[in-house]
Queue: 4 jobs
Job 1
Amino acid sequence: MIGGRQPIYCAPSCSVGNLAHELIHALGLYHEQNRYDRDKYVAINWSSIIPSKKGNFRVKRGNTLNQPYDYESIMHYGMSYFSINGRPMIVPKNKPKTIGQRSHLSRMDIVKLKDLYCC
């Protein structure tokens, strides 16, 4: 979103949902589990995360666009993505139906992008 060229991760095994996730990064959105207020919504089990992937779970002070936490966001990791032992790394404090899907933009993903780009 800022300053020129933006590389997009796209491996041969990359699904349409993963590609959409990467494109939305390029548009300016972070992972949902990186929000400064995430600890109200999820617990992170650091011991279950592959060590080289722990940076993907650190809190960032980005702009939430004044929108609620979105478990259904395409930008949210699933409970066991990057698990070193198969156990959940992200445990919701509420019991949402979906967490970390890669099939579609959530309603809030669309709201955030529209807010970000004033459309």
Job 2
Amino acid sequence: MEIFYLLCSIVSISLTTLLLSLILPFNALLRRRESSRAASSFTQDEVEPVSLYEGTVWHQRRHPVNHSFQYRVRYALIDLDRAPHAPNDHLSPDEARQITDTNGPILLLTIPPSVGYEQNPLSVYYCYAVEGSTKRLKKCIAEVTNTPWGERVSFVFNPHSDLVAKALHVSPFMDMIGIWNIKASDPGENLTISISVHHPEHGNYFTASLKAKRLCSSPVSHHAIFFWLMPHKVAVWIYWHVSFLFIFHLNSHV
């Protein structure tokens, strides 16, 4: 029954993606006209509170099989206080400041939805503290969403390095016994995020990282094209390598 629902979901997403992709050029043209009108009364810095990043996600596990993979990914870093439209299903800047006890800007690193589909294994809020004329990254909030269940947990961590008890399943054949070691750099021209799982029996048996570089800013009208099918590609990579792990697991028990 679960396979049936999964197949129905894939068909529905595929049809929606096809339809919205066909009308994407018209939506982009409309947004370009709206951006041109807005630019007449605001500076470029005010119109574009979004930075675009492109980089590589890398995964490696050492149990029950040594397996690694990487894929290219595109992210948006959104200034939530200056963004004209808050991203759906995410914290507001005031909520993030209250959770982290900060008083400065809140930046959200995330993969925006594309043509009706969203796939975001990890989103990170960068929460800054302002003291006089000095701004420093004080805390981060991680939003971890597992695939395909769509369960999500959020937790605050020290960006320099922090240990967090594992809160949900995120990968096959990994139990809930373990601690996440997570750290994130202050995003600038480059950004990095790394997560490793420490297990009392298997040691440091899983590592994931994101390394990305900021690209030249582009008009809002280009963002839909820049992220076209990006969530779909992430989902394909996840399902492909999950299938590999299941096949290995079955073969090892034959």
Job 3
Amino acid sequence: MTGADLPLWAAWLVSVLAVTGAAFSLTGAIGLVRLKTFYERVHAPTLGATLGMALILCGSMLLLSMLEGRLVLRDALIGLFLTVTTPVTLLLLARAAAHRDRHEGNPDAPPKP
């Protein structure tokens, strides 16, 4: 099966989803570089990468479903694992940084809950 079997509307939709997802991921990467403090920086890539990943995987599932002629959901597992692990990683990094900053007496450390 080739890409020539893909209807034009599906090709456009897959392209739009992939490019939009890549743009969100790029926005998160730019936020990582542009924001000043660690606590600001940690949010941008997490949010951008999660939304970008979701859009790219939706495009991938649509493309594979159209080409194989059946519903293909195996890419949803990638999305599930990334959606679960990304926020957990954010939480652990932020807590470790806050603990370190409080221990070192950094005046910019977030208050203890």
Job 4
Amino acid sequence: MTESKPATETTTEPAAPAAAQPTAPAAGTEAAPEPGPAAEAAAPEAATAPAAPASTATSRTTDIVAGQGGVMTDEVGVITGEVTLLTELAGDQVTIRAQYKDADEWYTVTGAKTTVKDPADLDAVHAIAVGLLNRPEG
């Protein structure tokens, strides 16, 4: 009998962008004038480029051992052995992906897309996927 290694889990959440804070001029100095049309004309791409949307995606990853029967993926069929599961949340959509441990390619787990009402549900969805797919003893 082989000893099973416990699944490891990491949590990745993007950092929130820092908001620009206005600062008061130092005592005895004068504030710089606000940029006018001449400054905007010098950098038109900055004035017209849309702001990137704030990222609300979060993810959870866990290394598992996919035993006999493996993990069915949309792209390559069944993968087995040491696998990393990734559960991603984008808006209200959750998608579970798998990769061979330390590989570059990620595959969508067949039937593993859903909608959640609360972003906090990501943890429960990930825990269920790990519980169903981690079978170190076959």
